[in-house]
Design brief:
Elements: E1 2-4, E2 15-19, H1 25-34, E3 38-42, H2 46-53, H3 64-73, E4 77-80, E5 88-91, E6 97-98, E7 102-103, H4 106-116, E8 124-127, H5 135-146, E9 163-166, H6 176-182, E10 185-189, H7 192-202, E11 210-214, H8 215-246, H9 250-257, H10 280-287, H11 293-324, E12 333-336, H12 351-362, E13 367-370, E14 385-387, H13 390-396, E15 399-402, H14 407-410, E16 421-424
Helix pairs in contact: 1-3, 4-5, 8-9, 8-10, 8-11, 10-11, 11-12
Bound molecules: ligand SAJ.
The site of ligand SAJ has 20 residues, from helix 8.
């Protein structure tokens, strides 16, 4: 491992192309454009391309809209639906998993196929999408098949026509524009020269360091970071089950244990969501199911948590029926929070939505969702639940289910919660 200083400078990159204008690609394109680089953003989503070319954004991320607007107005950023020639190509397309938790590299393959047509000698290609180990070598093999006229690093490490590197994104949704600039960057070139070139590219806007390794280590590094977090959250979630069985307050327990100088336990919740932490560990497991036992178990613990929460809700409702004499159809259950984590509006892959859906499918009465960050329900809850205000839920619901520790929920004063049946997965109203 070595660190490349920010001062390195060789042939400048005239035009930079970012393929995939989602949560990572668009902020990255905007970051280059903000440094007065000519940036071509590519996305197959025509609507997104039109919005960006009008200076708008199709995703919510603090500071992003202003940057995109300025970049488009000043002529540094344009969006298109098919690649055009450039000096560097960054691929930031989704890598979901398919059946059996196998990584699905189809979007990377499509991006590579489309850019191959405009590739020329001297270009740099960087894969940023979270990928299984070996994906960069696979990408280089696809390119060699598509462009037999060019020499790639696997053929000529000393002087390839095209440099290739894997450089994972590591930014936290909600803080992307800060972390993109400040975080250190792991640079996994197929050769030392590829790493050098990739570092030069990121140093256009990076304030963190470029830390150089090979492509396989860089691929594994990204998977490791998110698996580490998943395993640690699973530990907290497992503790919450154990504490419940023992009549112990898990949040107090964690607070106490964390007073130890070498213990730092994360927080339990209704499960793990988002598009990264609940997905990426499977990329390790799928390649080595026999070895990745802890990582797989952590996934199972976290994926099992929503079902445990629903069992708690069922028990609360049963108790409520006995105590009040109401029929199930008369009981209102209010789910507080639908986002995949606090203070964001992103409901995709959210354990809170999963819990609300399971409750709505089971419950004979009304299921209410309280989510101040959205103005309509996701498809999974359409015709099953209704969106309600905090006030209505507190005034009228029989059972409260706390799923996301949004600031607006943490601010609710204890005396306003008069319900006897509260299932609090975040320890906010304890
Ligand atoms: N969560 C808990 N307990 C905790 C922390 C988180 O239950 O103590 C839950 C959250 O509620 C959420 C899920 O975990 O449902 C994931 O949230 P997160 O904030 O841990 O992570 P993401 O998915 O927003 O972003 C992660 C980050 N990875 C790491 O922190 C190692 C980010 O740096 C990555 O760039 C991002 O994944 C990604 O794109 O891979």
């Amino acid at each position: 491992m070595s660190v490349i200083a920010n001062s390195v400078s060789h042939t400048p990159f005239g035009t930079i192309s970012v393929i995939g204008l989602g949560y990572i690609g668009l902020p990255t394109a905007a970051a280059f454009a903000s440094r007065q680089k000519k940036v071509i953003g590519v996305d197959i989503n025509q609507r997104a391309v039109e919005i960006i070319n009008r200076g708008g954004v199709h995703i919510v991320e603090p500071e992003l809209e202003n940057l995109v607007k300025k970049a488009v107005e000043e002529g540094f950023l344009k969006a298109v639906t098919a690649p055009e020639p450039a000096d560097a190509f960054l691929i930031a397309v989704p890598t979901p998993f398919k059946d059996g938790h196998q990584p699905d590299m189809i979007y990377v393959q499509k991006a590579v196929t489309s850019l191959a047509a405009v590739l020329k000698k001297g270009d740099l290609i960087i894969l940023e999408s979270t990928s299984p180990v070996g994906a960069t070598e696979q990408m280089a093999a696809w390119l060699a098949d598509l462009r037999p006229d060019l020499r790639f690093p696997q053929h000529d490490a000393a002087a390839p026509d095209v440099n290739i590197a894997y450089c994972p994104e590591r930014v936290l949704p909600g803080k992307v524009m800060v972390e993109l600039i400040k975080n250190d960057r792991v640079i996994g070139g197929m050769t030392a020269q590829c790493s050098q070139r990739a570092s030069e590219l990121y140093n256009i806007f990076l304030e963190g360091e470029c830390v150089v390794t090979n492509s396989r280590t860089a691929e594994m590094c990204k998977l490791t970071e998110n698996s580490f977090r998943d395993v640690n959250i699973a530990f907290a979630n497992e503790l919450s089950l154990l504490c419940d069985a023992q009549g112990i307050n898990v949040w107090e327990l964690i607070r106490l244990a964390n007073r130890h100088p070498r213990v730092n336990i994360l927080q339990p919740g209704p499960g793990v969501g988002g598009h990264c932490i609940a997905v990426d560990p499977w990329f390790i497991v799928s390649q080595h199911p026999d070895l990745a036992r802890l990582i797989q178990t952590a996934r199972e613990v976290n994926d099992g948590k929503p079902f445990w929460v629903v069992d708690k809700v069922k028990a609360a409702v049963a108790d409520c029926l006995t105590a009040t004499g109401k029929r199930a159809a008369e009981v209102k259950i209010a789910c507080f929070g639908l986002a995949f984590k606090p203070d964001i509006d992103d409901l995709r892959e959210s354990p809170a939505v999963h819990v609300a859906q399971l409750i709505a499918d089971w419950h004979a009465g009304e299921t209410w969702a309280v989510e101040p960050n959205v103005d309509h329900l996701p498809a999974a809850l359409e015709n099953k639940a209704t969106l309600q205000s905090i006030e209505n839920a507190l005034a009228q619901a029989d059972v409260l289910v706390m799923l996301v520790d949004h600031s607006a929920f943490k601010d609710i004063a204890g005396e306003k919660i008069t319900q006897r049946w509260v299932v609090d997965t975040k320890g906010v109203w304890r």
